[in-house]
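Write out the bound-state structure for adenosine-5'-triphosphate.
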Amino acid sequence: MSNSLPPDAAVPAVALSAPVPPVPRARIAAARVLVVGDVMLDRYWFGDVNRISPEAPVPVVHVQRKEDRLGGAANVARNAAALGAQAGLLCVVGHDEPGERIVELLGESRVTAFLERDPELLTTIKLRVLSRQQQLLRVDFENSPTHEVLSACLARFETLLPQHDVILMSDYAKGGLTHVTQMIANAKRAGKPVLVDPKGDDWDRYRGATLITPNRAELREVVGRWSSEEDLLARVTTLRESLDLSALLLTRSEEGMTLFTAGRVVHTQADAREVYDVSGAGDTVIATVATMLGAGVPLVDSIAYANRAAGIVVGKLGTATVDYNELFA
Ligand SMILES: Nc1ncnc2c1ncn2[C@@H]1O[C@H](COP(=O)(O)OP(=O)(O)OP(=O)(O)O)[C@@H](O)[C@H]1O
Ligand SMILES: [Mg+2]
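---
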């Protein structure tokens, strides 16, 4: 990890100091993280294109291979489990084929699934059709869970709260976090830190969260475009105070990440050696922070580990998780 600031840094940001020491495996194994949010299935169909359809001017893909992966909140939970934490996942899935597939994949993972089934829900699935590494088409299925199921989810949350150390809200704007404000309030009352990966421009619903982890585009949508690091700090501070957030972690892709807390800014430069696949890096970041907080690691050190984990995960094709040995190698 490099400790220098971005070249345009104009705020008195503190750069992270020397690499942080390994956290004992047993401490991570004791961390109980509850991920709540929108789960989805990432489906890939790979095949060859040898002709154009006689029906319309589109390529015909002869599918040769299929692959399904857990996405959204399930990928976040998978990341926490890969590090060695006890990861629970509370979410809604439908009674359809993608829903069954998610149940199956979760069964094969180390994640403890707390699933609410909604017979009326189309489980969120993103189908990509690819040929020669090229994505030809993406097909999405999704709708919102019903009121009844969301209420059941909130009730389930209450019962799961005492059994977990850290709560993580993974919002992909699919409706699974309709009751997020109340969940945050209840978790705070129970003394548990709440981490939020936000979506959309209404952050009032995340009021009171401990840490929120937007990327640059997500933050820009809420505070507008900043002109300098100083301006960024001013905008973030106003937002943080008005929403009663303890901290905000801005993930900045190739520029690394910046943590804003009351009276302190800590910047960490990106740690990637080779970048293959950046999708899912945000999931790895928040899952790592949650795991470390659950293991009793201070926030600033947790961020350093998260940055290291993100640097590893962007260098991977396929499996977007980092395990204990890789992180502390
Ligand atoms: N191109 C890159 N080079 C180096 N590191 C990267 C790159 N992209 C991402 N990272 C690492 O991953 C972290 C999270 O990435 P980013 O800010 O893109 O999150 P994100 O947009 O939420 O990701 P996603 O939504 O695709 O999961 C960054 O803070 C950085 O540590
Ligand atoms: Mg993200």
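---
The first strand starts at residue 14 and ends at 15.
The radius of gyration is 20 Å.
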